[in-house]
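Late entry, pyridoxal-5'-phosphate complex.
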Amino acid sequence: MKPLNELIRANVLRMEPYSSARDDYKGKTASVFLDANENPFNSPINRYPDPRQSELKAALCQIKKVQPEQLFLGNGSDEAIDLMYRAFCEPRMDNVVAIAPTYGMYEVCAEMNDVAYRKVMLAEGFTLSAEKLLAATDQKTKLIWICSPNNPTGNDFGVSEIEKVIKKFQGLVIVDEAYIDFANRQSLIHRLEEFPNLVVLQTFSKAWGCAAIRLGMAFASPEIIGVMNKIKYPYNVNLLTQQEALRILERHYEVERWVENLIEERARLIQEMKALPLTVKIYHTDANFFLVKVTDAVAIYNYLVNEGIIVRNRHSVALCGNCLRITVGKRVENERLIEALKQWNTASK
Ligand SMILES: *Cc1c(COP(=O)(O)O)cnc(C)c1O
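Prediction complete; structure with ligand written out below:
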């Protein structure tokens, strides 16, 4: 890995972060707050939230077995994705490399930040080639994006191929583990010490059942996390989100039950889908969704919408022609999908 100071944008390296009112009196206890121009009425939401999210990070770090200095919390993973560009990529000069097809936000944020986005198509069976990814990099490549388990394909690439990329690349490798709870491998967050150029993204939006609160996590070296904290909006995670996240952390056994249920339901749903004449191929999945190639994705998608059932049409995505991405729902929801698809077969004859 190059020295981090060579990867950070010069303006980011130079700048002083915003110092909030609550930053100045660190450590001391106080009960009269006349420092932040808040309204003394309307407690508790009259006060600015903790910009460091200390209580939430302490609870989360116990579960994740990392240090608070290795954890960034953002307004969804999407904030962390954007911050990686803003911290490390010089607009119109630097570039990033990413697998394709993959999660759309990496490219949207690249465009927003005017950073060249180089796509490397996955191979047959949506497999990852470390060699091909690395071959697409040059001296101006700051980041490599790997989503695993990947969206929309559903498959996990396995640690050994991802490791090759991390070990050989001189810039930062971001591994998006949004769906790791549904996969059959250990998270890479346990190997941050071994890989100083690794950034792992996780989210409260999927297995944790908290998409509405907008809370994403980035795990990396204290140096990388320090850069992200330096440039984030001071109060990027609001009070209600911090409180609700603490509540779900206390009920993490329930999350484990949801995950078990969804993995079981996934197997059942896939088996039923396989028996349908409209199914051409179901791709292997390690996530809470699967990609299915059907006889006519656009027609089937529109038919399902009419039935009040929404799946994701991925027909226009590279390598995903005639594919639908289907999220695993509750048993009754999955049953309704299957019943509707059975009707399609009789209707289309
Ligand atoms: C759903 C998803 C996320 C979650 O993003 P949030 O902003 O945390 O809701 C991140 N990455 C991938 C690949 C996803 O599919």
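The first strand starts at residue 71 and ends at 74. Will revisit in the morning.
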